[in-house]
Structure formats: C-alpha cells, structure tokens
Amino acid sequence: MTRRTAITLALLLTIGSASPHAYLKLGAVVNGRVIAATWKQQPIGYFISERPGNGVTPMDLLAATQRATATWSGVPSANVRFAFQSMTSAPAEGIDGKTVLGFIDRPDLDRVLGATSFMIDTATGEIAEADIFFNSRFAFSVAPNGQADRVDLESVVLHELGHLLGLGHSAIGETERNSSGSRQVIGSGSVMFPIAMMAGATADRALQPDDIAGISDLYPAGQILDAGGIVGRVTKNGQGVMGAHVVAFNPETGILVGNFTLDTDGAFVIARLPSGPYILRVEPLDDAEPDSFFPGAIDTDFRVTYAPRMIVAPSGGSSPTIEIQVRPK
C-alpha cells in the first residue's frame, strides 16, 4: 500500500494596493533523498466545477484554463500536456479521484485568491490527484485587456497550474509595505511569485524565464543543447547559509533566473540557463513571507552580496563551483 500526503499552496493578494536540486519543488523524502513530485502519466486530465464565481461563469473558467494550459504546454523545452475531461458538479476540494478546478467561497481566507491541494504518493513522488480552488470572495475578470477593479482570472489560473505541475514559489519579484502593513507588488519577474499583482494587471498571463527554467527542470523535453548550469555555495562566517535567494542575471539578454540554497551547506544549483555570462546576486528572502517558500527556519540575517566575478553557464554543462561569502546585517 502506498502512502499519500496532502499539500496545499496558495497565491496571496495584497489588499489595498535536503540535497541541492534545481528550483523549489513539491516532493517526498524517500530514504533520505528528495524525490520531486510530478505527474508520471500525461496528459493530465482535469475537470471544471459547475459552481459560478464572482463576476465570471464556469465556462469563463474553462476558457481561461484552456489558455493557461496551452501556455504551460507551449514551453518547447518542457514536456507538459493537459486534457479537459468535462464539467462536473464535484467541488474543487476533497479526495474523490478527480482533478477539479473551480470556485469556492472562502471569506476566512481574505488574502487568498486561489490555492492548489495535492495528494502525493510519498513512495514515488507521483501526484495522484490535485484540486485548485479560486476564492469567489474576490471579483474576477476575463476581459482581454483586464478590468481595473477585478483580478485577472487567467493570471491566477496560470500560477496555480504551476503548483499543480509541482513547482513551488519563485522569489523573483519586488514588493513594498503599504500604510496598512500589507505588501504591494512593484515588480514581478515570475508567474510563480507568491504575491499577485494588483487588480486589472494582466502581465502574469505570460511565463518568464524563471518559470520556463523551473518547468523545464521538472519535465525536460530531451536534452537542451544550448543550456547550462551554475553551481555554488553561499557561506557566512565559514558556515553554509540555508534559504538564501540566488539570482542569475544575464546582462546581454536581461534574463533573470533564481534559486535558493537548499541545505545547511549553503549549496545551490541554477539549471536550464541559456548559455552565457551571468552576474550572481545573493539576497535574503524579504519580498514575501519566508514561509511562502520554506516550511522551516531559514537564515535572513545577511546583506545583499554579488559574486566577485561573472560566471559563465557553459552550453551542455555546469560552471565550476563558486563560493559567495555574505556578511551579517
């Protein structure tokens, strides 16, 4: 008998305004090793709940989902396929053997636009079932150019489908505190950033390089000849830093791809990078709540630091290991 565990990830709206592996992923620990949670069989069949939303219909949700699934499936370096099954009266929650997307009224979650829950086989990492609910407490829109006083549904669907595929959150984004103490997004470089852009924005209908690198790492479509990786360690006072955000920036193309140090040695891997030179920047997680990324304690007591030299991600290989030393704040 296989063991299964449930995981839930949410996309937040700001009101009023193990061993190193690439990218934050859902997963199971088997014999001390992290196994990424993925769908082993494709296409991924999904149902749309018949419950209406706030300002949008179930058919609107179906259309937005079909556009979003086409966006993920359209990544040439990833093998991702979906298949719509039918409309259903089943809610987008509970264990029923169906992967359902639908609206649920959750007034208790007054900052949560949507959330994805999973059943994962902890022996193999296979995702057995997933549900995505969109909080009908919020007014959504499917207007082609967005609607100023409503949240763009397709953008939220695209984010939650990233979770459904097994991706965790990205930290490529910038926020600031408003007068109420909430965070407001002032710049986002990834659909998988955990805080949504303001109502009316539609920029998150398109995947960014960070999203593409992550999904290509989870579901690689063969060998990517013109891709490389950067590996290294982040240390402070000679000890590894856990949970540091490492960003690779290509000054020639403007590409930004990030990852994290994922163990107590401070090791990181940034994979699936278009080959070329990169500037590396290390920063603490301070543009969203740390528990949006990591379930446990991480080190945020250090200053933003750049690698002492540019690093080349070689075509078809990885860079030599680089150590980046940070200092306490």
Describe this structure in words.
- This protein is mainly beta and 329 residues long.
- It has 2 domains: 4-216, 3-Layer(aba) Sandwich (Collagenase (Catalytic Domain)); 224-326, Immunoglobulins (Immunoglobulin-like, Sandwich).
- 12% of the residues lie in helices and 36% in strands.
- The protein has 3 helices and 21 strands.
- The strands form 6 sheets. The protein has a 6-stranded mixed beta sheet, covered by helices on one side. Strands 15, 16, 18, 19 and 20 form a 5-stranded antiparallel beta sheet that branches. Strands 13, 14, 17 and 21 form a 4-stranded mixed beta sheet that branches.
- A hairpin with a 2-residue loop joins strand 13 (227-236) and strand 14.
- Helix 1 (58-73) packs across helix 2 (153-164).
- The longest helix has 16 residues, at 58-73.
- The termini are far apart.
- Residues 1-6 and 12-22 have low confidence and may be disordered.
Describe this protein with a few key phrases.
single chain; 329 residues; mainly beta; Collagenase (Catalytic Domain); Immunoglobulin-like; 2 domains; six-stranded mixed sheet; 12% helix; 36% strand; disordered N terminus
